[in-house]
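Example 3.2
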Amino acid sequence: MSRMRTVAILTSVIDALLEEGGTSGRDHLQCAVYLLVHAAGVQLDFRFERVGVDGIRSTAMQKEVASLCADGLLERKFSLKFGPVLVPTPAGRTITRAFPMTVGRASERIHSVARAVAGIPRKEALNVVLAWQRLSEDDPGLPVDDGNGSGLMGVREPKKAPRNTSRAHTRAKDLNEALAGFRP
């Protein structure tokens, strides 16, 4: 995908996260883009090196976001409620409007993913990703063992049970249902 189309998708994801009452901080954006690529099948050229209890990281995406900030297409702002957040500039939104078909094809998927990760704490957004991975690996009809969190967290067993794992599992199931028609 061309860089400008990637910019259009990223600014749409950020706008969708903000519209859903969430934050467009680094961790939420990484979770949303991961789900957009892996759960929704949107073609973006980001490889995720680490997905686990400690977080989700795509070095390529971090570099792209830094480049977009340097180019004046995104800007970092500070929110008292959420901390540092990314916001598209008018120039970034102009690029989004320049690719209506690219954004239009992915719009429903972008909003489904944004609903899944917006408005929840950072760790819970990560739990949604990990619960989605578990659902995609296992039979979706099987319940996720969240008694001690080891089944949901997957990578290592936490010292204490993670909070809100059942809510994360519910969000992941809802996301699976919303994206059922878009699977690659």
